[in-house]
Batch of 2 targets.
Target 1
Amino acid sequence: MHYHPLTDNDRQEMLRTMGARRFEDLLVGVPEKLRSREISVSESPSEFELRKQILKIGRENLNSQSTLSFLGGGSYEHFSPAALAELLNRNEFYTAYTPYQPEASQGTLQAMFEYQSLIAELTALAVSNASHYDGATSLAEAGLLALRHTGRRKILVARSVHPHFRQVLRTYLEAADFQLEEFGFEKDGRFRREEFEEFLTSEVGGVVIQTPNFFGVIEDLEKVADAVHDKGTLLILAANPLSLGVLRAPGEWGADLAVGEGQVLGLPMSFGGPYLGYFAATRELMRKIPGRLAGMTIDREGRRAFVLTLQAREQHIRRKRAASNICTNEGLCALGACIYLTLLGKEGIREVGELNLDRAHYLRDEISRIKGFRVNRDAPIFNEFTVVSNKPFGAIQSKLVPQGILPGIDLAPLYPEMKGAFLVCATETKTKEDLDRFVKALGAV
Amino acid sequence: MLIDSESRLSFEKSSAGRHGAKLPKSRLAKKGAESVPEPLRRRNPACLPELTEPEVVRHFVNLSKKNFSIDTHFYPLGSCSMKYNPKVNEWAAALDSFAGVHPLQAEETAQGWLQVFYELEQDLKEITGMDRFTLQPAAGAQGELCGMMMVRAYHASRGEPNRRKVLVPDSSHGTNPATAALLGYEVVEIKSNARGRVDLEALRRQVGPDTACLMLTNPNTLGLFEEDIFQITELVHEAGGLLYYDGANFNALLGIARPGDMGFDVVHLNLHKTFTTPHGGGGPGAGPVGVRQKLVPFLPVPLVEKQGDRYAFDFNRSQTIGRVKSFHGQAGMLLRAYVYIRTLGSAGLKQVSEDAILNANYLKAKLKQVFPVAVDEPCMHEFVLSAKLSSAKDIHAVDIGKRLLDYGFHAPTVHFPLVVPEALMIEPTETESKETLDRFAEAMIQIRNEAEKNPDLIKNAPHSLPIRRPDEVLAARNPILTYQDWLVSLETKEEPKLSLRS
């Protein structure tokens, strides 16, 4: 095996050194009954043959290079500079472990610190952790934090929050015997304010609103934070971080916690993962944040140094009294997001936001002109929007896929009341030709 | 604070007007950015650093050089299985035909991904002896959470919600009690016997009608196989409890023994340990969870089914605990593990564990003259030494670890498991050569000598790394967690000294 350096000679010599006759002598503790079973997995071809097999399996997937995809809904096709992938391939980054030995991990630790700084800047909040598994689990952790902080048992969440975010939140809350209540949305996709106000009682520990929400609509959160805080409740905003160069930031809305999916910051869609959940909070909540935090300090010679800090919150120290059971975060994905934001810089993050607004608005205008298709032109959107058609989505899809176009996400399975509606996304990756081709194909369905 | 050019933050290298990415200039819409109503727009610009591409590249490449990693150093970190991450795995995960696929694409357009999921599940079932797997959990700790949610749902479905206790050995990983506590369980620690295994008598005293589950790592964190495993599983099952297998140490058992055959009901695997997906400086991981038949109804949705020669997602499962993660889990990591299993095949997988065990026992044999072994018996893939030396009372495990860095080796896991005073937990893995182990053993012997002759050398180590020991107390007492915090702290403190040293 080309990954295993021991030769037969080595093995013999090593056994001799330790005074064992044969390898099996080392397994004295393992009951014989367990050892009799041989496992049987696939054959092991050469690397060349295996690569051919993998390429063949890959051909059973349509991908964003070979097709024109208008899918969004929590995972997005964005431009990622070539320098980003190149840097993530640095062996010293991707084959390192969690930086428990700070002297041998200053690279990872400083990058974590810079990532936290970038997220704090983007969200306009004071503190960011070093990331969670994904947007949905980040939200679940935020929900649990809000309940711990307030000592309450209920989270109130808008139904316009990503269905997977809500499902994961529900799984986490129900498993700990907490409650989840949902409030609805208006026809144009905005959350329903009267219902929100009606359900917001002093029993609610946290309110969750997403902006732009699952339908792509930018929520107007005027006075929301005040209403939430009046009840002693925390406001959790799930915001698309790539929109924050142009859209009002969670901290600017008065949010206590901001969470969301960080895949948009330069990472591939990769069929759903690995991604990263960003997690930011006010300074007041700093010591209650779950997950890893990097901090700046000095070494024995007074030099700048970075360490994992406030570890008294974490499972390896606190065991059953930890703030969360989280151990591994999404280190390399957070590094990717950090590099992406550093490459984009102050101007780039605004520009990319404007480009998304531009492409989505152009597409929405064009689709609104197609007979048999309706879009809501009143709601403010970022880079996606809902389209309603008389034709079933299945029919549209089966017409467009053979032309190499993936038209969007069917909303009916996720929201039964939205029959005939689908979600369409256009990011900065789409050119005028791409968008026109899509519009023409839709018109011909 | 002394700041050399290599520890300047990207923010501190920023210069107004620079940018490191080239974006399209064209605008298509009549009203795009202008259409956002004023109150919904950002108030103050996000002040990200402004650097050009070459500056960003140099910044991060130089940062990377401050890290130890598997590809540059021997990394014998116990219970973490820091082994070589094969490059063909990375090749596969970077292919457009996998990386460019959207998770909500129609099933017919993502059959390749579904095939990978399906076949990986079949392999993991075979390797562990479990009946079904969910591939959704993002890491070991989330696998534990998912597994324990299923345990909870199982007892509830049988009208036994009063099973409120989760038992964990005192040598367990911190995630075990933290996970159980997160679900509201009462955590009971079972003490180890003199040979580092679960004390059967202590277990017998704690097991009862209120037992929900025993969470066990096998081999345990001392690297020892639980010889009484059949009695343990029987004892817990007889009381109506379930058994949870923490797969952190599964690198010892590939092709040697299966948790399913030992009687475990739930198993999580750390693909980033046993199955070579890179640790990434702290993630992403992947923590698939396998269960026996009686727990299958509670698995998260969706699962992948094969129908004829097509693959499909199954969402329709009435007793499911729900979803634990967006989309389909850490797909890119699952693909890497799939490629790894295929590269090795049955014989190669068995060789993994045999060589891992051989390497650990060999290193233990070489080191036990210099540091006492916690339990001097044949070990599995790792072993624990104690750095408690009567001849060098001031030296702690952490000091030995730091001094090893000077010798070009990453430190072992130190001060864990908690049951061993001054623990040094060493896991060499199967991808290290005998020559590397010999060099490591020589370094340990030298450090042992230094401990007696020149203890200050060790207590002040490391001496040759980018920094000396950092002040962790200061970091926690006066948290500077962002560049913005740093700017604020500057207003109240003396000016930092900029060092010209690079």
Target 2
Amino acid sequence: MNRAFQSQPDSAALSIPPGMAGVVAGQSLSVEAELARYLPHFSRMSEQLKQTSLQIESSVVEVCDSFQGIAQRAKATVDRTKGFLSREGEGSSDTRSFEGLIENCSGTLVKILNLTEEAGEVSRRAVDRIRQMDKASQSISDAIEQLERIAGGNKILALNARIEAARAGSYGAGFAVVAMEVISQTEKSQKVNAQVSELITNLRTLAGSTLDDLKRLNDKDRQRVEQCKHEVDESLRDLQGAHGEMKKMLTGMTEEGALLASDIGAAVRGLQFQDRTSQRIAHVVEDLGVLSTRLKTRFGDRTGAEVASDDGFSSYTMHEERAVAGIGETESGAGEVELF
Amino acid sequence: MRKVLIVDDAVSMRQMVKFTLQQGGYDVIEAEHGQDALNKLRNTAVDLVMTDLNMPVMDGITLIQNLRRIPAMKSKPILMLTTEGLAAKKEQGKAAGATGWIVKPFDPEKLLQTLAKVLP
């Protein structure tokens, strides 16, 4: 607290040691006259102390205002960073988090790869079925060959029947007609067999080429899927690495923010010197007032008496102090620059 | 948000305490001396009062005595924040109804910890 620069009247007597006297311009003065000449300096010194105290206080208030802004901005940054990092916490399932996004992205890519692999699997199964169909076609071809052999046997049998019918003369005429009919039917079945055989050959050729196409496609797909997997894995690893670095940087920023807050706290503590200084100055001013009052009471208010010169007193440089001392000076504005 | 009334005749001290408390998430109102504080409390309810000891118009001890007569302030924490550290003065504060005594210069972190302790 400031004892608020209030002077307190004090009528207590002041004892001056005997023989104490001053000399002005070679002229001896009484103690009273000597002290009276210095009295105006008391109020000047008090005023300077008050001004100094007020200036320090005003500066401290300004510094505090600046701290307020710095601290608010630092706090806002730290809060935002903390908010981001909390979403990025270990095992975070928050879809807004970077890790969540990477996880989602990775999941989607895995699904696409799985679908591609499934398509590959379907195509592999198609290859197997075509192979089975080819095998079945081969069996049909074998069966047709057997039918061909049977037809050949029938034809020979019918020829032999005709020969025997000729030997039998008119009695074998009917039998010869039947033999001829058997030969005709056998030839017809041979034609059908040949057509079926040709169709099966064509079918097997088509199946073979389809099989080759599917195999090539399948092999290419597998290679592409493997390559995609590899590229996706690499990109995700890079992304996670970059994210890790970013997290590290943000954590560092949060720590810096905390340090800044702590530094500001220390500065606030340090700035409180002003309160003590202000109180001490107030006490000195008060004591100067008491001293001045006592001197005036003791020796009377000698307004108009010759004022002692500034010789021997400190020189003042600040314009406010000069103003207090009644010394004229052109005032410069804050921040003004004057080049000569 | 908890509301704190700071009473100090030094504007810089008020500013420093206000800054510290605002950083701790408190809402702060200010008064220059005891009488100013009593006037402000007529229209505003606060959760805690932090006052200096030596002030013009009305000092901290008198303020506390007055505050303890107000029903709404009977059980509210009142802290002294002063450069005065004499045991006799502390006793006076305690007798007047102060909850605690903090000697300036204060440590911002400790000040916030103290507030957290005394506020229910």
